[in-house]
């Protein structure tokens, strides 16, 4: 597959050579997750518009975030912002269980159809307000958020296991949207700034029309 091969070459140029992750990405064709008009751009580095006025991050950034999340076999993962469902599908090939939330009913329905087509039965996709995470489902080993918070979302500490990792964008004082990796140490986060990302501010509530 030319698109996937090009992605692998770009990622290797950035030093990302996680064989297991790349196998999971290859087994999850991005062409299934983009609108038909955008299939030629499925493996491009740029963002791809999807339904409900949303977008899916470029293939390079998606792979980089999954690499930084460091999901291990047997882990429980929470994703805030299902979007097309691509990242949840890749995570599900390693994790024991994935919970993915989105405020748009249409996105959840479309993602669920893709999960079923790929035979992924360990994903729970829900239309919900995920701005405060997910309560009532226990703690998670990993949490991935694809919308930006104004400040460090410290409330996620209670939803992570000891040593758990939160990957989330945070808006900086200069307006930059910075991807942060936060590791739970005791009752606090050890925070690491990674790189700027093109995510929008997180929205609250469930979408009514879509």
Short description:
By secondary structure, this protein is α/β, with parallel strands linked by helices. Helix content is 24%, strand content 27%.
Helix and strand sequence = HHEEHEHEHEEEEE
Rounded to the nearest angstrom, the distance between the terminal CA atoms is 34 Å
The largest pleated sheet is described as: 7 strands, mixed
What is the CATH C-level name?
Alpha Beta
Question: How many DSSP E strands?
Answer: 9
Tell me the CATH architecture: 3-Layer(aba) Sandwich
* CATH homology superfamily: Vaccinia Virus protein VP39
Describe this structure in words.
This protein is an alpha/beta fold and 210 residues long. The protein has one domain: Rossmann fold, CATH 3.40.50. Helix content is 24%, strand content 27%. The chain has five helices and nine strands; from the N terminus they run H-H-E-E-H-E-H-E-H-E-E-E-E-E. The strands form two sheets. It has a seven-stranded mixed sheet with strand order 5-4-3-6-7-8-9, covered by helices on one side. The longest helix is centred in the middle third of the chain and has 13 residues. The radius of gyration is 16 Å and the shape is globular. The N and C termini lie far apart (34 Å).
Keywords:
7-stranded mixed sheet; methyltransferase; two-stranded antiparallel ribbon; globular; 210 residues; 27% strand; alpha/beta; Rossmann fold
Describe the protein's topology.
Layout lengths: L1 H12 L5 H8 L21 E2 L5 E2 L2 H11 L6 E5 L5 H7 L4 E6 L2 H13 L5 E5 L12 E6 L14 E12 L5 E9 L2 E9 L14
